[in-house]
Amino acid sequence: MTGLHSFRKKIIYGILIAILLVPISFISRPASRQKDGTISGGGQLARMRSEYGLSLAELGDIDPASESMKLATLGMRGVATTFLWERSNRFKRQQDWDSLSATLNQISKLQPNFLSVWQFQGWNLAYNVSVEFDDYRSRYHWVKKGIDFLARGIQYNHEEPVLFGELGWTFGHKLGKADEYVQYRRLFRADDDFHRELSAHINMDNTRGVDDRPDNWLVGRQWFLRGEDLLDAGVPMGGRLITDMDQVKRGKSPLIYHSHAPKWIMNYASAIEQEGNLGEKAQIAWRDAGVSWNEFGNRDIATSYGFTIRLNDTERLRQEQARLLAELDSTVVGVRDKLLEEKHAALTPLEREVLDTPPELRTPEQVEKVAELQRQTAVSHEEVADRAPPNVSRTAKRLARKLLDLESRIRATNSYRDQVAYGYWKTRCEIEQTDAAIEARRLIYEADEAYEQADLEGMKEKYEAAWDRWAQIYEKHPEMVETPDAEDIYEAVMRYREVLEQLDLPWPPKGFKLNRLVKYYDETFRPADADESPEKPAEANDVKEPAPAKSDADPDEAKPVNEVGSEAAAQPEAAEAPNRNQTADEPIGQHEETKSDGAADFQIPD
Amino acid sequence: MILETEILPFWNWMAENIRSVAWAMAALCGLGILIGFLVGSIRQGPFEAIRITLATIRTGIAELLQLSPRRVMAMALLSFRESVRRRVLLVVFAVFGVLLMFGGWFLDPATDHPARLYLSFVMTSSAYLVILLAVFLSIFSIPNDIKSRTIYTIVTKPVRAWELVMGRMIGFCGIGTVLLLVMGLCGYGFVVRFLRHTHTVQAEEMSSETQQSGNTPGGTQRQGLSTLTFGHRHDVEVDSEGQVKVSRTRDHVHEAMVDDTGNVRLGDHRGMLLARVPMLGKLRFLDRQGKAGDGVNPGYEWKYRKYIEGGTLATAIWRFPQVREEDFPDGYLRLEMTIRVFRTYKGLIESGLAGTIELVKPAPLDQNGVPPAGDAGLRSVALDFTALDGEVYERRIYRKITGIDAEGNEREVDIFRDLVNNGELEIRVRCLDRAQYFGMAPADLYLRATNRPFWANFAKGYLSIWFQMVIVTCFGVTFSTFLNTPVAMLATISAMLIGLCKRFIFAVVSGDVPGGGPIESMIRAVQQKNQMVPLDDNMATWVIQHIDNVLMFITQRISYAMPDASQFNTSHFVAYGYNVPADLIGQHFVITMMYCAALSVAGYFLFKTREIAA
Questions:
Q1: Is A584 on the interface with B (CB under 8 A)?
Q2: pLDDT in tens, B183-220
Q3: ipTM score over 0.85, yes or no
Q4: B interface residues, A as partner, C-beta within 8 Å
Q5: How many helices (H) and strands (E) does chain B have?
Q6: CA B333, CA B310: separation in Å to the nearest integer?
Q7: What pTM was estimated for this model as a whole?
Q8: Half-sphere exposure of A382 (CA within 13 A, CB side)
């Protein structure tokens, strides 16, 4: 009886298993090759994988080690990763770097398509772990580990522009702007084994610098260009993994992302000039940077306003605006002036008095009131079109709509130009290519060299010759003076000031031509209670690395927002200001450069 | 090497800890009797249960005295054969084999310290697998016997409960031992094989340099870089006499020879698989005024190392006991130091920080047994060094050295005769750079007397795993005497976890780890509140926190009786290349044997519980 009961149970279980297999098979049936050679069909899961581009072969390399680790965790991948992440934090706290590195390796194998792990831990190794070492060679070694980690992330995730951007950034920013950038750049140039590894991924012939050896800025640029290739091929900025599902928005804004490749050439040019390569190579580098910056200006940039812009289009858009405005005003003659008069007539005497007060005499309340009144009395294109006679009403309304659209494009373009200081860098590239700028930089370099020889008189002479050249340049381009990016010139002036003090000469000397620049820097970047003594000549060793509160508005891009010409001026990034006044003796410690979350730091600001 | 807890000499440790270990053992025995009594009370009523319990204790003592080693061994052999029949052994070994076969996929030979990585991997995987095996074997045996009624066959034989419990424990430990031996041999082979590598340097890739000896040209020195293997190269120098010098990279050097074609061939590695015997001292600090102090923490969360300020009188002092001449037959003290560097300003990036080492004749301890800040009037001249942050700095200090007496006169002194005072010697380290810091912990500076064979150290590492396996087996068998299989497994795994997290549990109870007890933590996890955010001040929180207090009280009391599994782990000694101290092995042995004894007693009474219940 018992045996029969048991047999019946087995039969029932068998039937239930068979029934359950049907929906499972329906859901997870793999895609198959069709007669025409295409691969399609398959179950629901296969179709979804294909639709969202989630099959491993599409995402990146399939690593047997990674796959076997995933299987070994029996579906507990998330738990295992969380456990390992916790362990990695403990190892970091206990300064057990080998174990940290091994644990990160395991995490990445468990979840190779979890981009935040690659971003966060790549940064962690290159920026946070590296600074825990005292020897700059050890630091370089750990920066390389961070770079290797990111490069491995790319192998698993071929179509994630954000990872290419991270790698490009680390090559440039960490190796080229850290406190130890002199040593890092030197070590990188001599690192043949590393170059050989890199040659498997990028064309190293395009990365050769002045000594015909790869330069970190140019290598970083190649990674950005690979990312741009992906974008140009239609891969979304946020990558293939999540964008379609619209769950997590990550990735840089296209504007910032595309600005890096040309900016990295500028940084390269600037770096080789600092190293004393002031000649044709520097001029070529600045010319290339200018060409690349111009190409960036001609690129269609997607905006958060729902349309694309080109940074180089401002002038064309303004001309078009002027033409349409003239056309509207000629279609509806005199209406705009009449409307303006009406609106002014409607103001109270007190409001009129406020408006008539000269700007320099206005109180803060009046300034606020004036802004409000200006908004109140402004005449919109729609208002003009609404007053148009019936026979031209449709034309006027069409012109008004066009003008509105055009103006929003101009505003967007200006806003985006401001974000990357487009005009400033364009002018800078033009200036730096000139013989005058090269000569001016050469004189500063030679003056600094003279300082090394304790030749104060020689130094003074060279500096003064340099100020003459810079004064000529600033005369032609006055907009280049009041900008945070003239910092290197200001620092040179401070070194000159120290020389004068050592020679018992007064500061500023009679006929000094860069007073405006000094005044701007002193007022903008030196707090009132700062030490009045000038900074010592900054050795490369003593320059503090800016705390990379890494965000889309990175230090390079966000600093200079003074646009050329009529474009709006803005203040430099607040975080930058304290660093300018940092002296070599200020406590630095082995500060940790934090990154709160890989994904969060790459949120698109708009 | 990180050594967070001082390793006491065996007899000192016994004197300090034997009482608490004995209490834990007594608690385990008492727990066994209590459970037996409770079960009996439920079945028979409390008064009858008291009578039966007392009778069982009496019988237990009598049976213990009649214990037959022959029958115990017979039971052990039976357990061994059963385990072999079940093929669990084969499965575990197969998993280990697969791990070793594919281990190379996960382990990066280009890591900075490859030996550490490979040794940690092999020892950790062996430990996990063998403990897992111990759990599975031990918990299935007695419940299965009861379920299949074979227990009747056994108990009708002249086998006593003691013999059954102890026989099972010994049998399962035996099978675990065999497996561990095989794992150890395979693991050793794996590590040796994967670390083995060579390099070459082609003659045409070497640069030559003619050395000058005064005005006459000397021999030609050649320099080059070895081939890239496992992500590293070595600098190689060949002097005019054909002597080859190989730079130390990734913890090792190579033996090298120049072949007929002028190429340099680097043989097998040396220095990766070591068992250094460090002679550790006690560390104390002087503050910046030169008075007794504690060292400072520049802001690290991990407080293992203390730091001394450079350019001040702040000093780190190691006092070494038992410095004997015969331990240093080569005529020099071999000092090894791994200190950390903390800069408050960058200074010169390409230069390391400067420090000094002084060998000092120690002054006698004061009446409180505390060493005074000063010395006994004789010290060596300060020996300069440049700090290698986090790297092992080696220095040979020859026994004849210039010393300075209390009057400031310099004279040659002999370290062992003049500076060692009653077997004690002090080594003082200072940082010279103003406002920069050196960080150190007690194990960061030691005198290295000799090396032990690596294989013996590896074996000692496995011995520690064996101790863990034995304790887990005893727990498993004990739980299986009165619980069914799934519950016994849960109980054994819980005991292991509590042992593993013992320090964490104490830290949670004491409030060192913020975030509250288990329920509060779960609520924080669900609500995504971090550990520092206070919960809402309401009745629910009050109730939760009080339930947590009760739970944590119980957990803490249970954890007292559990072994601290983390202290049994000696893999870091082996991986970092340090000899596992015999004192530590002795301590582990005593703890293991005491647990075996206590768990046997508990197991006996719990097994008898069934009789009490019946």
A1: yes
A2: 999 999 999 988 999 999 888 888 877 766 555 556 67
A3: no
A4: 2, 102, 105-108, 111-113, 116-117, 120, 228, 233, 298-299, 301-302, 304, 340-350, 352-353, 387-390
A5: 14, 23
A6: 26
A7: 0.79
A8: 3
